[in-house]
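note to self: the first set is below, dont mix up w the second
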Amino acid sequence: MNPSHTGANYSLLSGTRHREGNVYFPKVLAMPRRETVWVTVIVALIVLSMGPVRKRKEENLFPQFLLLAEMMEKIRSHYVEEVKDEELFQGALDGVVSTLDPYSQYLPPKEAEELQVDTEGEYEGLGIVIAIRNQQLTVITPIEDTPAFKAGVLAGDRILTINDESTEGITQENAIAKLRGRAGTKVTLSLHHESQEGSKDVRKITLTRARIEVQSVKGLCRAADGRGWNFWVDEAEGIGYIRVNQFQEKTMPALDEAMKRLTSNSSRDLKGLILDLRFNPGGLLNVAIEMADRFIRDDLIVFTKGRARDSFKKYLARSDDDYPAIPLVVLINKGSASASEIVAGCIQDRKRGTIVGSRSFGKGSVQSIINLDEAGDNHKLKLTTAYYYTPLGRNIHRTEGAKESDVWGVIPDVVVDLTPEELKELVQQRNESEVLRTPSAETRPAGGAESGPPGEAEPGAGPPSLPSGWTPDKQLRRAIEIFKSLNASPEA
């Protein structure tokens, strides 16, 4: 047999068939090595899928395997340029996973090694969290202290081009690879905010990549001594303020230190706390569980559920390490995702505090890292295996195509939306909060030499150092009003 590469590809599998179990296998006759490779591919696919096929006897998957092999061989034979087998297999594997959701991903050895970079929370890049939403590359949130945040990149910005290359059809992984790079190098983005649907208003900005090391716990502004943060938003009323930018390994010790600072004040009792989770894209699950545990005494914090039996897990609180049971307000916005939504959803369902702001992003899926042992060489599969549910059973995750009326994310108890202009002002205000201000340095620019050392929050001993004319943003102002109404004495 000497089949032609330009002829019908089914000749590669001509011959009699033999049966093994409930699956028919082609009997492979003598043929050139190239054809044998593809027959081996088909047989391997069928053998690997025999378990599922036997469980679902009504499905005959052999024609699909045959079609895949035939298509790949046609590409190898007839495509205008020579294509490497490795590239075809990579494309086929990527294609299978791309039919699922934006978060599932096949990881070849190089990308599997780079996965550790994401879990460690330090890398070189711009400092934005992205996702594919409605087939468009979208900013979930910029991360504080990063080039993207300082340049005014907003949650909800759609990235149209990266260095003048269109992002249409780009995968999340390829986008990350284009956005990251050595510190000091530049990248140009074209942005269009989702709130401006139908307009042609496109912003073009050039950013310089930097080493991203996020300080995860901050106060309202720098303390005057430059060693830490001021954690009071209204000390006269006893209202504390802590913002958490990410859930990292150092987050809980820093949060404990900030709470100690607020609760050990000899001159003022803490009567209420504002926990600001706006622009917080998430992070480590165990840190989110620990944070929620500090605010509730016991019972359920969050649970996961998927199709597999082992995907159902409950995460429970302990009652031995709680913060004082003071009134609590949690601020969220569309940049609050994942771990932030777990904490906010738990506090809301357990009626431990009031949620204020705008609806969260809706990133509540569990990605499991699965070793593909048959391939060797450290191939992995990052696969969505479950969703996160709040204590009352609300699914946090926003699936592709979900409507505003569907159940996803966390909807605040008190909805206070910001316009894009107000959002820009909030970002600018946060950038200014980094500046150390004293009576003799009122106008020192952001990022000056006295911005304070990097690292996690330390208890500041100095007085507040708010800029002249500072006023709280609309969402923060509403949170303060809630506490003042609670603290007001009832009329006789």
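second set (the one i keep forgetting abt)
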Amino acid sequence: MKKAIFLTGRPGIGKTTVLLKTIEELKKLKIKIGGMISREVRKQGKRIGFEIIDLSLNKKGWLAHINQPEGPRIGKYRVNLQDLNSIGVEAILNAVEKAEAIIIDEIGPMELFSKNFKEAVLKALKSQKLVIGTIHYRAKNQIINQIKRREDSEIIEVTLENRENLHKLIMEKISKYLKGEKLMLIAGIDDAGRGSVIGPLVIAGVLMEEENLPKLVELKVKDSKLLSPTRREKLAEEIKKIAKKWHIIKLSPAEIDKVVNYGRKLRKLNRFEAITMAKIIENLKPDIAYVDASDTIPQRFKEHILECVPFKLKVISEHKADKKYPIVSAASIIAKVERDKELEKLKQKYGDIGCGYPTDPKTIKFLKECLKKYGQYPEFVRKSWKPAKKIKAESSPTQKRLLET
């Protein structure tokens, strides 16, 4: 569960307002608050600077002012490093020692001029205390990058749509953290290239914390078949950034041919996929796994998966799961992008082989030319596929060795 929650958003969107609402809710729970907040100060309707407030001692000082005589300049303001260090930094350090929740408002360009401030933020993050703060929308700094990379931190953007009730969502997260509730891990698993006669069958799994699933909706993930190659590639990179983990297994045509040709009834490709998905689940270790069922009977597919997983979990096995569940859509995208890479390697070496599916005239033409020229298929063709068998049966055999180089 996240112990550090930071708000960000464009200037004037209401980050501090959401933070203050959250602070009031924390006070109702008798949680001891410490740290600092900053807010703008206006005179006759014009902003003249920003003040710092120590939440424990109610001490105030200037973070920046238009008439500040010295200090780093940002626009028309100069930063008051003395007040920032003696009030703001001390408020954070005092909260680390004595408070239950540390407030840091904000981590922005002005505050980041202070080395002491940056050290105090890191100390707060390393503590076991709850940390709630704000981050300037456009601020770039190593310490902000560290926050983004931390598994125990979460950054939430304040928008016009969510700002009214965002403090309630934050309190739900805080409540779970304080109760020590286990964070649910959700996995989505899907394949790419199942019906193809050329190339591997790629199966991918994506693991995410349950509370981060809305991020997939924000990315607008959908079934990979509905996306352009360029869009898929971009989404795949974004998915990997927010996923806790992902895992890919590629099943070669030789492996597929073996189970199709020699597997017993109900132990052919569907069972092979179930076993492979079980391996992915074992690697990801989710609490719940959503899978796009390859079997005509989703329940049977689920049972075959569970037979091979050495720990208890809930498996949701459904047809068209990649259209219903964003986590499965994410896996679909990862799998498709990986398969596209494999096909591109083949095209670079052997020319235009089409999309690899028997519905593509280019793929059929390639298969026929292989048989005409070499008398057999290359290793990346699924020889057990009916279209491949039919084409071979209709062609005249030759004894030439295939693709020696």
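remember for set 2: The chain has two domains: 4-179, 185-346.
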